[in-house]
Amino acid sequence: MNYCSNCGAPVRLRIPPGDTLPRHVCDNCHLIHYQNPKMVVGCIPRWEDRILLCRRAINPRYGFWTLPAGFMENGETTAEGAMREALEEAHARVAIDELYALFNLPHLNQVYLIFRAQLLDLDIMPGSESLEVDLFAEPDIPWQNLAFATVRESLRLYFDDRRRGQYRLHVGDIAPPTGLGRARPMTGQVGARSGEPHR
Amino acid sequence: MNYCSNCGAPVRLRIPPGDTLPRHVCDNCHLIHYQNPKMVVGCIPRWEDRILLCRRAINPRYGFWTLPAGFMENGETTAEGAMREALEEAHARVAIDELYALFNLPHLNQVYLIFRAQLLDLDIMPGSESLEVDLFAEPDIPWQNLAFATVRESLRLYFDDRRRGQYRLHVGDIAPPTGLGRARPMTGQVGARSGEPHR
After folding, report:
1. Which among A95, A109, A189 is the nearest to B99, CB-wise?
2. If we measure between CA atoms, which residue out of B7, B59, B45 comes closest to residue B29?
3. Which 8-state DSSP code applies to residue B21?
4. A 92-151 residues with CB < 8 A to B
């Protein structure tokens, strides 16, 4: 950020009075431009024992498989965002069930919110951001070709819970791809294992 | 948003190719400036049967009581943000337990994430954003002087669950203060009642 989005004057990075962190501050119109983490909302769409995945037609991770998910938009709820993403990426109509996983990715300033969902019909086809869409039973999941650690963790936890016969909320942190970070599972709630890098 | 924060040229609001929503687009450096919802992270800090509340020294809702909560910062996890807010607003050191409530406020482009937490000691005092801080047993909660619907809902659900002897995740939507919106509880998860306006 170099210029004030309100008045166009140059901004400076400094700690405003009463604050503790550096912010982009405009010395002309005095606006403080805060930058905050973004939410990525998505779902695990189920049809009988199979899960809908989309093969990405965009970077990052072009050609790799993902759960339908994307940045939450202004004016929608988290569940509405997850529904919208399924529609956009796979023309999939889903009924959103419970919140299933929250992943913190502090190195990317992102929080993933993944819901369980039911696919309402099989009229699915790739949206503009997908090369193909398909349904996978657990043995057929392309584990080596999944796009993101969040997708891998969501699916791994999901199939584990399904075997146990009980789904529950999972909250965890996902480390940066450098391997410098470590998983920091939260007290009292099942943390995500994050041995594999997220990109 | 009037000017590009990257190059300072005027921006225009239009739908970029391949997109579905209007964005602030710079015709000079071609950056698209996305705007997304923000997360508010907070906690319900417990000491024995009492809950820590803070009386706000800032607007909005100056003088009203709130749970410690605020905008999540870049580079932190949701739990870290909730801990930081307790420290900033009440000098309170807390251990974060489970995620307890997620409230969508689509009219404000906000998502609240409220954790249960344990106050670690009684060395609490008002931070710069608080007039006073205090511990309240259920009968003493200042229900008529709570700052936000999210605080009211969090406390109401919390005490209900405590009576039942089981805490569980609550997910719900909170309607705008005009009363035009309605509560939209989610399928499969306990929705927040939102009969009272949020400000």
Report:
1. A189
2. B7
3. S
4. 95-99, 102, 104, 106-107, 109, 111, 113, 128
**Residue range B76-116, pLDDT digits in tens:** 999 999 999 999 999 999 999 999 999 999 999 999 999 99
Which tokens sit at B56?
A: 């706000």
Measure in Å the smallest separation between the Cα of B173 and chain A Cα atoms: 7
Cα–Cα distance between A61 and B109 in angstroms, integer? 29
d(CA A109, CA B39): 11
Find where tokens 């994307």 sit: A70
Distance CA B16, CA A127 (A): 17
Each residue's pLDDT tens digit, A16-59: 998 989 999 999 999 999 999 999 999 999 999 999 999 999 99
CB interface of A with B, residues 29-58, below 8 Å: 33-39
pLDDT score of A83 more than 90: yes
Is-above-0.80 flag for pTM? yes
Please spell the DSSP secondary structure of chain A, one letter per residue. --B-TTT--BEEEE--TT-SS-EEEETTT--EE----EEEEEEEEEETTEEEEEEESSSSSTT-EE-SEEEPPTTS-HHHHHHHHHHHHH---EEEEEEEEEEEETTTTEEEEEEEEEE--S-----TTEEEEEEE-GGG--GGGBS-HHHHHHHHHHHHHHHHT----EEEE---TTS-S---PPTTSBPPP--SPP-
Q: Which two tokens stand for residue A61?
A: 């991770």
Q: Give CA torsion, residues B5, B6, B7, B11, to 10 deg.
A: -50
Q: What is the pLDDT of residue A187?
A: 35
Write out pLDDT tens, residues B31-80.
999 999 999 999 999 999 999 999 999 999 999 999 999 999 999 999 99
Listed in sequence order, the DSSP H helices in chain B are: 78-90, 149-164
**Are the beta carbons of B2 and A7 separated by less than 8 Å?**
yes
Interface of B with A in 61-90 (CB under 8 A): 71-80, 88
A108, A36 Cβ separation under 8 angstroms = no
Helix (H) or strand (E) holding B113: strand B110-119
Residue A157 · residue A170 · CB < 8 Å: yes
Mean pLDDT of A109-131: 98
In this structure, are residues B111 and B103 in contact, taking their beta carbons and an 8 Å threshold?
yes
